[in-house]
Amino acid sequence: MAVEVGAKAPDFTLPDQDRQPVTLSERLVRGPVVLAFFPAAFSRVCTTEMCTFRDSMADLKRVSAAVLGVSVDTFFTLKAWADAQTLNFPLLSDFNKTVIRDYGVFDEDMIGLKGIAKRAVFVIDRSGIVRHREALEDARNEPDYAKVREALARI
Questions:
Q1: DSSP string of 5-46, one letter each residue
Q2: Which end of the chain is more exposed for a tag (fewer CB within 10 A), N or C?
Q3: Mean pLDDT in runs of 10 for the chain (155 residues)?
Q4: Where are the domains of the chain?
Q5: Other C-beta atoms within 10 Å of 56: how many?
Q6: 44-55 helix and 75-85 helix, angle to the nearest 10 degrees
Q7: Does pTM surpass 0.90?
Q8: Measuring CA to CA, how many Å separate 98 from each of 33, 64, 73, 106, 140?
Q9: What 3-state DSSP class applies to 53?
Q10: SS3 for 140?
Q11: Is 46 among the residues known to form the active site?
């Protein structure tokens, strides 16, 4: 079941690329969260997407927003990728595929890759309510960054 706009975002705790636990509800205390699910580290479109979020961090911080990237990659892979791309936000390992199922972005089979995250973005306000959702069926496409900014501006 997909998490829709207006619904309470499922809380979770996942390890980041430095093996530190990150809990969504604790992050929300500081401000809204852009939760960005991506299929695989080191892939072309995922790199473009995460680097776009990295490069817009100053704008996101102006509205007290944080970015959390989530994939089923191991934290070892996420660490190498974050370092290679100088990503300045946590990348979370949903290796057990729990959170991607909870958010309804589990992809059974993406061109032979079994059980990975669809490319999806959720904007979640401080109270844990989803204010924007975009889940892409074609992972070659990037999310609509303007709609993410609009959702954050409305919060």
A1: TTSBPPP-EEEBTTS-EEEHHHHHTTS-EEEEE-S-TT-HHH
A2: N
A3: 92 98 97 97 95 94 94 97 97 97 88 82 98 93 95 94
A4: 13-154
A5: 16
A6: 60
A7: yes
A8: 19, 27, 13, 9, 24
A9: helix
A10: coil
A11: yes
